[in-house]
């Protein structure tokens, strides 16, 4: 695996190293020791997938509120998405900034973000399947989010969103979040 800086402290784009021949390829998608060596949380307490049938579907920007914010490793298993992470850690040099990249099943590129980030994606193709490895256990009452179109964040989504949940349409702006939902950035 090759780890690349995204400009957001702690958030990494991970490219797979594919070993292949005429039959196809093999690639490692996760290694505890490799993550530890790069200062990333290697714990996986749950794995989840999501399916989006329509091109243009937008999901996000979601996070779990403090004290159970999540470390996430995201990859696209089918189709192509535009994946976005937003730094929500007050005091972070990259607070309020976002990073987005295409993730597709063919390339296998992944995006990792530590606790304190919101995550969202937009389906760029039909029939998208997205996989998540998450460091913390899901706590339903801590489900939170920030608006996908928050002008204070300014994510440049590649398509006009065509399918959003009512919940995602009504999430608060970053400026209106309860500070108790967030974890303060602490310089390592």
TrEMBL record:
Active-site residues, as the UniProt record annotates them: 62, 132
One Pfam short name: dTDP_sugar_isom
EC number in record: 5.1.3.13
A GO MF term: dTDP-4-dehydrorhamnose 3,5-epimerase activity
Any one GO BP annotation for this protein: polysaccharide biosynthetic process
One GO CC term on file: cytosol
Keywords in alphabetical order: Isomerase
Keyword Transport attached: no
Keyword Isomerase: yes
UniProt site positions, description: Participates in a stacking interaction with the thymidine ring of dTDP-4-oxo-6-deoxyglucose: 138
Pathway: Carbohydrate biosynthesis; dTDP-L-rhamnose biosynthesis
Family statement drawn from the similarity comment of this UniProt entry: Belongs to the dTDP-4-dehydrorhamnose 3,5-epimerase family.
Entry function: Catalyzes the epimerization of the C3' and C5'positions of dTDP-6-deoxy-D-xylo-4-hexulose, forming dTDP-6-deoxy-L-lyxo-4-hexulose.
Protein's name according to its UniProt entry: dTDP-4-dehydrorhamnose 3,5-epimerase
Organism: Parasedimentitalea maritima
Gene that produces this protein: rfbC
């Amino acid at each position: 695996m090759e780890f690349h800086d995204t400009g957001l402290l702690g958030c990494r784009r991970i490219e797979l190293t594919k070993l292949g021949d005429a039959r196809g390829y093999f690639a490692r998608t996760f290694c505890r020791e490799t993550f530890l060596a790069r200062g990333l949380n290697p714990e996986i307490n749950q794995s989840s997938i999501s399916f989006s049938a329509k091109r243009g579907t937008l999901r996000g920007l979601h996070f779990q509120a403090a004290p159970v914010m999540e470390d996430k490793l995201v990859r696209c298993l089918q189709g192509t998405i535009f994946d976005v992470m937003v730094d929500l850690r007050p005091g972070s040099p990259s607070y309020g900034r976002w990073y987005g990249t295409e993730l597709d099943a063919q390339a296998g590129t992944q995006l990792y973000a530590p606790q304190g980030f919101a995550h969202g994606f937009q389906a760029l193709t039909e029939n998208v399947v997205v996989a998540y490895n998450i460091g913390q256990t899901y706590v339903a009452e801590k489900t939170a989010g920030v608006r996908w179109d928050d002008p204070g964040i300014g994510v440049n989504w590649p398509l006009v969103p065509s399918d959003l949940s009512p919940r995602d349409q009504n999430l608060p702006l970053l400026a209106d979040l309860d500070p108790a939902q967030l974890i303060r950035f602490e310089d390592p």
